[in-house]
Amino acid sequence: MLPRDELLKGLDNRDTAARIIDQAEQALKTWEVVYSDFLSPPELMEAQQMFTRLTDIRLLAWGGYPQAERKRLAIARSELPLEESQVAIAALDISGNFLFDTATHRDFLGSMLGTGIVREKTGDIIVLGERGAQVVVAPDLVEFLEMSLRQVRSVPVKTRQIPLSDLKIREPKKKEMTTVEASLRLDAVASAGFGMSRSKMVDLINSGDVRVNWKDISQPSHALKAGDLVAIRGKGRLEIGDIAITKKERYRVQLTRFM
Description:
CATH class of the largest domain: Alpha Beta
Order of helices and strands: HHEHEEEHEEHEEEEHHEEEEE
CATH superfamily of the largest domain: RNA-binding S4 domain
Largest sheet: 6 strands, antiparallel
Strand order of the largest sheet: 10-15-14-13-11-12
């Protein structure tokens, strides 16, 4: 049995983590690969952190393409090989004429959930503007959604399965930069990385629009470290790279901004 209480200590998404522990125990017992539902980035991060010290469990996260936010976990004994192609996911194309009634990510998700499915069975939604959207789902939903998803907002749609290779992924633009700061405070480093004033960054943090490693952070003084990921709704992400101390005892921080 896995040390459940120790693994769950301090986690925010305890219910999800408990289910993954159950699945890991099943994988250990049966010597089979077990799959989680689609996990949000915070759930995925905590799940991966849980098992970092356990050498008998192997995890592989996959959501259909490298930049996917929502992913399923393949969980297996460490002796078993895992490949992305083993993770059970499928892709759907939701096509319609949205020229005069634009639909957002929320609209497509709402219409899908309106058919009776649950969020945990759906991955990323890629909105294609006036042409519709593409969505990653659990394979057992394909036939049901092909029959049931007929309208998004006021627009009639046709839903059909497509190969994962047909997903229209936009490669994120990225910008490398370096900043020198007196401290590693979130408001100082992030304002430099996102190219905005420190007071504006403080406003965004106070309003709940800033996350670090997918967790909401409400303190502008939160200290960043190498490897952290800062995300602002609608403005992209900032990865904290190497940190060095200058001769004047300031912090030289390597940053990568994804837009």
